[in-house]
Amino acid sequence: MTAYERITIGDSIAFGAHRFTAEEIKRFAVAYDPQPFHTDEAAAAQSHFGALCASGWHTSAVMMRLFVKYFASEIERTKARGEPAPQLGPSPGFDDLKWLKPVYAGDEIAFSGTIVAKRESRSRPGWGIVSIETTGINQKGEPVFAYTGHVFAAIAAKT
Amino acid sequence: MTAYERITIGDSIAFGAHRFTAEEIKRFAVAYDPQPFHTDEAAAAQSHFGALCASGWHTSAVMMRLFVKYFASEIERTKARGEPAPQLGPSPGFDDLKWLKPVYAGDEIAFSGTIVAKRESRSRPGWGIVSIETTGINQKGEPVFAYTGHVFAAIAAKT
Q: Is B153 helix (H, G, I), strand (E, B) or coil?
């Protein structure tokens, strides 16, 4: 069975969790999204958010880091079992990203994904496209982030 | 006329351009998307991309930075004309983000947006939702990035 064959629709994966500190929220925002409610506690308190919160792009980037880390550990686990390791290619993009609630300083967000589709690529022989419905949930159990990503996966990945 | 009334469907806005250096591509990727084709020239040369290229999340974050910078300068211009300044709220998310081609080290990407929809919010009285079809084009004229973002805008923004 190849790594691609083992990808099963309905399977869920916990990518891991991350606690967003005020310091990193501000650092990301100064570089990429310098709006006052992401860069300054006092200005954020006066804003519609009511407190310092992360740029939605920061939340997305942290989700990606946890996904990459999960995937690297999954490669190690499959190698340890002597199975062919999965191999990912580029992502063509995604659908309907939602920032459902603010991610405030101190919030811990747990990200997970469910495989919702896989199909063989017509344009790229030897590759499939896997779709993963991904969500981020805060420490109160509230969904704060959702998107469905697509990524190329090698159909006959070599170990 | 309020700032919201002046938002016209079909209007296009140039957000500005950015040249992606190898150094910043690697810095972003180490922090948020540590895949070898984003962090290491030699590994990238061996990959399906063929050369070091930016994380799609990095491209997205740079787009956001240019949009925020454009919007801050637009506020200054409207104030200088004595008109009510536009006021943005949070973004609920977006549709169909596409990474159409890799953004390689040295590429210069120009981002622009076209207003494609605006409507009054039912859930948030006093606010509208403006939809902006945004694209990134490289120095060869090739589209590399596209998405349609939605953002809350105050209907009767005060100066």
A: strand
* Number of other residues whose CB lies within 10 A of the CB of residue A41: 14
pLDDT tens, position by position, B3-34? 888 889 999 999 999 999 999 999 999 999 99
Say whether residue B55 is in contact with chain A using an 8 A CB cutoff. Answer: yes
In angstroms, rounded to a whole number, what is the distance separating the alpha carbons of residues A51 and A75? 39
Residue numbers in A near B56 (CB within 8 A): 91, 93
- Contact (CB<8Å) B32/A65: yes
A110-140 residues labelled b (16+ CB within 10 A) or e (exposed): bbbbebeebeeeeebeebbbbbbbbbbbbee
Cβ neighbours of B35 in A, within 8 Å: 68
Whether A57 contacts chain B with CB within 8 A? yes
Q: Which residues of A touch B60 (CB under 8 A)?
A: 57, 60
- State if pTM tops 0.80: yes
What is the distance between the alpha carbons of residues B2 and B66, in angstroms, rounded to a whole number?
Answer: 24
The predicted-structure confidence for A127-142, as pLDDT tens digits, reads as follows 899 999 999 999 999 9
Tokens 């637009």 locate to B74
